[in-house]
Structure formats: structure tokens, C-alpha cells
Amino acid sequence: MTSEATDVRKVGVDLQEATEDTRRVVEAIERDNEDATVSYLPGLVKIQAPGRLVVRRQTVEDLLGRPWETHEFQLAIVSYYGHIAEWDDDEIVIKWDH
Amino acid sequence: MANTKKLSMKQRYSALTRDLDWESSYVSEEELFPHTKFEGIKIHDWAKWEDPFRLTIDAYCKYQAEKDKRLYAVLDGFAQSQGHLTLSDARYLNAMKLFLQGVTPLEYQAHRHFGYLARHLNGPGPRFAALCQSIDELRHTQTEIHTLSNYNKYYGGLHSWSKMHDRVWYLSVPKSFFDDAISAGPFEFLIAIGFSFEYLLTNLLFVPFMSGASFNGDLPSMTFGFSAQSDESRHMTLGLEAIKFLLEQDEGNVPIVQGWIDKWFWRGYRVTALVAGMLDYMLPRKVMSWKEAFELYFEEQMLGGLFKDLEFYGITPPRHVEHAIAEKDLLSHQVYWTLYSFSFAAAFTTTVPEAGERAWLAEQYPDTFNTFYKPRWDKAQAIIDGGGRFFFQGLPQLCQTCQIPMVFTEPGDPTTLCQRHSVYRGERFDFCSDGCKWIFDREPEKYVQAWMPVHQIYQGNCGGPSVPEVLAWYGIQDGDNGEYTGSLDHLDWRRWHASEPAVASTTKES
């Protein structure tokens, strides 16, 4: 990857702010993505990260204290930008392809 | 452990989506899928289509049911607690009237057309993704109708949205946009709606509406909006997969796809002009300006992110995008002034922005508002102070492509109206912009057939020659249209809040 030399393009995801569960998911994302920035719009949490953003099942489960399957992320997500590079049982990865 | 027998997401997806497909033996592939050749797109291997969501029908049903349960719990609670009384102001609902009349019918059209794709695309992956989206769009239609039907008990403008969508002048803007898409071939539709609308522009449509709902006390609309948007992220993925798939399958697809991006960016962008007017003027409590939303969701995320990614395939940012960027300081003001001038013929009301709103607009648009647009509002206010109300007398020239009245200005000159025209088969057609003229010139034989609301009135197809006759044919009733101050909604709102201390109301005291 040569993108290090130039600006690293951001990717991001917008989540519903409403629920307790979502708050834990946001916390998990912050924990797993050191460079992530979190901002708030009415009803909405906007998370952005340079280059790559990952949601890990294990971290979410640790914070929720219950099993959580990655499909459940669909209940929280409002929008995203980037490309969903991976969505399997253990993690969701958003990044640009090229 | 019994658990070791459980299939992983990848295996489940492969087993339940791809492996259920079979090859036809009684008929050829061409006979089975007759619509995927004529657009010139070449597909060599349908199995290369990827679905990152790896959604299977059981997971789909489980999570969609959960989304609906959450939404209906909110709707019931809101209705039972007389939630409509806690809105920021009755005039906020003008935004939702525009939404129900303009957007909800498009959801239904999307439902129908994705159902068509679910039958007619050759690969099982895209067929299943299209099937899910088709069901999603039907869910959106239904939840939007259910959500807003509660307000229909108390407020005007929400009763005949379906009929209005087919008839009323400003609603021909979104209607003709979608008619254009569903009368294209399946691949063009994927780029038009799946990619250009759902990925490039959807955030500009939904996020402002829903954050606006949240900020103005409209819990049900916020909830249906975000519920719909959670499906939307899947739709964005379908759109993005579609474009990457087409570009990767054959080099010859690249110029065709570029042409569609150029066309559909501008078509979709012109529809969002209505959102611009809504966002800056219809919300009593402002969320963000159109300019800010455009910079964040379009310039930063799409031009700065997505198009850098598509460069790899030789795709460039859409034609005429520089005009959209230059217009961000002007668009909402030009559109809302038009709605203000013609709202006697609309199924919502308009009013002069209050002093606080004008200050906010001046702050958000330091280069344009006070110079070009505040003087108009001062004039409109002076007319009101003198006991009148300005409405435009006469019918406007519409753009043949986007069907918006020709109210936009020359690039670089906000004081001169932009007018373009082309002659086709000896007849002159007018356009609001270079973008709309370019689209017409590519396919004149398509756009000459447009159902132009103003022309139709003059041709005697809209109930009769007088304004009351046309309004009756539109389905507009007393209380739906005109000026907000003194309207039925306004009077009811004041009556319902009469026993409260004056500070609880944000309505203008006149």
C-alpha cells in the first residue's frame, strides 16, 4: 500500500444514538480504533477513522455482557462511507479498496 | 460441542443463497434472462458479484422483524401520549408533508423495480440482494404511511399524497426522476438508483430529514427514518458492489457506466434541491444548513473518499459537479423562494422566515444571504405588514429535464437567471442548467415525452383553466395550502396550546 505517503482518506459510520446497546457498540469501536473521532448530531452518532474502521464482536460482547452477533450491527447502522471489506462472524471492517 | 456443527456466516450465505441456484436446461440463459444484453454491458462471470453483508433469508427476517417491533412501539407510545402536541411547531410538519407526497411514493416504485431486478438479473447473488431491497422498500412505504397517518388526524396536507404525487407540479420533480430510472434498462437502473441515489446522495436526503425530525420533537418520523436508513446501508452496499462489479467485468463497461454516473448524479442532485429548501427554511429548529450537509456528506465523503477509490477503474467525478458545488450557497434560497411564491398551489404552507431564522441564514451563508435573499424577504414582510401576501400570479416555465421551475442562476452570477435550450425535431425545449440540457441532448427522444405539469394545465388536462379548478383536480383542500400564519394548522395549534404559558410556543405572534 502506498497510501501512507499521501493523505489517508477517512472512512466512517453513522449509528442511531438511541439505545443502550448502541452506546456499548460505540464504546467498543472507540476501544478498537485508536484514531477514531466521535461526533453527535440530533439522534445520531458519527464515527470517523482514517483509513480503516473495525467493529469486533468480542469487544462488543465484553462491554454488553451478552452474546452479540455481527448481524445485530444492522439494527444500529444508519449510514456509512467506505467499502465493507469484511463482514463475518467475528468482525466488520470498513475501508476503501484502492 | 454441538456448536462446532454450526455453519459460519460465509458458509451459510453460500449454502442458502448461491447453492440454491440452478442452471436452466429447458431454455437457454438468454431466454431466461432476456433483458441483460441490450444496454451493451458485458458480464463474463456473475459469480464474481460479492455481497459483504452475507445476508440469508432467516437472518433478514429476524432483524427486519426486530426493526419493525421497535418502530411500532414508538408509534403507539407517541399516539397514546398526544405526542403531536410536543412538536417544535405545527409548521414543522410541512417538511413531512413534502416527504410523504414526494418520497414515499418513490419507495413504492423502488419496491416494484427491485422486484423486477430480483427476477431478471442472471446471478443469484445480485438477485437475492435485489429481493431483500424490494421487500425493504415496501416496508419503508408502509412504515412511512403508518407513521404519518397519525398526524393526518390533526393536520392538513397529508390526506391525498398518492394522488398528488401523480398530479401536482412540484411533485413531478421526484416522480419524473424515478420514472426516468424505471424506464431505463436494468443496469442503468442499478447505477441510477442503487449507486447514484442510494450511495452518492441518500445521506443528503435522509439524514437531514431525520435529524430534523429528532430536533423538532418528531420522534416517530425520526424512528422510521433511522429504521429505513438501517436498510439503506445495505442498499448502499448493493449500489457500490454493482458499480465495482460492472467496472471489473469488462473494460468496455467503463465509458457506459461513466455516462450513467454523469447523468444520474445531476438528475438526483436536482431532486435534492427540494431537500435543500426544506432543510434551511421549513425546520423551525435548525439542524445543519444545506451547505454544511453538502460539504460533509457529498464533498468530503463522496468526492474526497469514494471517487478517489473509483479512479482506479478510470472513473472520474461526475460531469457538472463543479456547478453543484458552486451552487451550494444559493440553492436552498432559490428553491424556497419559489415554494413561497407558489404555495397557494401546494399541499403545504410557507411563511417568511422569522428574525432568528434570518440571522441564522445570514450566519450560515455569509456570502449570499444578506446580499441577495434577505432583501426579498424584507419585501415579502413589508407586503404582509401592509395586509397582503405575495403570491406569484401566473405559471412558471419548467425545465424539460428536472421539471423544476427555471429559477436557478448563471454559474458565477447569482443575479441572472440561467436559461438554456435545445431544438429537437423543430421544437424548442428549455432547461434550467447545463447539466439538464446535457442530459436532454443525450436522449432527446426520451425527454420530449415528459409530462410537464404547466404544459398540461395549458392543454386543459388538469381540471380546468382556473386556479380553483386545478387545485380541486390536485386534491388540495382548504387548509392544505398558502400562507402558514393564520392557516388552519396554525389556528388549531394556537388553540391547543392556549392554556400554556406563552414561552411554550415558538409560533410567531402576529
UniProtKB/TrEMBL annotation, chain A:
<dbReference type="InterPro" id="IPR003454">
    <property type="entry name" value="MOase_MmoB_DmpM"/>
</dbReference>
<dbReference type="Pfam" id="PF02406">
    <property type="entry name" value="MmoB_DmpM"/>
</dbReference>
<protein>
    <submittedName>
        <fullName>MmoB/DmpM family protein</fullName>
    </submittedName>
</protein>
<comment type="similarity">
    <text>Belongs to the TmoD/XamoD family.</text>
</comment>
<dbReference type="InterPro" id="IPR036889">
    <property type="entry name" value="mOase_MmoB_DmpM_sf"/>
</dbReference>
From TrEMBL, chain B:
<protein>
    <recommendedName>
        <fullName>propane 2-monooxygenase</fullName>
        <ecNumber>1.14.13.227</ecNumber>
    </recommendedName>
</protein>
<dbReference type="Pfam" id="PF02332">
    <property type="entry name" value="Phenol_Hydrox"/>
</dbReference>
<keyword id="KW-0503">Monooxygenase</keyword>
<dbReference type="InterPro" id="IPR012348">
    <property type="entry name" value="RNR-like"/>
</dbReference>
<dbReference type="InterPro" id="IPR009078">
    <property type="entry name" value="Ferritin-like_SF"/>
</dbReference>
<dbReference type="Pfam" id="PF04945">
    <property type="entry name" value="YHS"/>
</dbReference>
<keyword id="KW-0560">Oxidoreductase</keyword>
<feature type="domain" description="YHS">
    <location>
        <begin position="409"/>
        <end position="451"/>
    </location>
</feature>
<dbReference type="InterPro" id="IPR003430">
    <property type="entry name" value="Phenol_Hydrox"/>
</dbReference>
<dbReference type="InterPro" id="IPR007029">
    <property type="entry name" value="YHS_dom"/>
</dbReference>
